[in-house]
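Human:
Class, as today's exercise, you are to examine the entry below, and be ready to discuss the fold:
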Amino acid sequence: MAEKNIKITQIKSAIGFSIDQKRTMAALGIRKINHSRMHKATPQILGMINKVKHLVKVEEI
């Protein structure tokens, strides 16, 4: 079955949060507030989103 596409948008700054959360944001390809990236909803990506869910907004496309 095909995976769904999701759009991830940063809504809050990562300043003041742990280094592994900052690295997770970088691994997702998100650099600035209001910057968005499209990804497939794989278990790895969903786990990364769960770690930084307080910093991002996720939309299903």
Observations:
- The first strand starts at residue 5 and ends at 10.
- The mean pLDDT is 94.
- The CA atoms of residues 10 and 33 lie 5 Å apart.
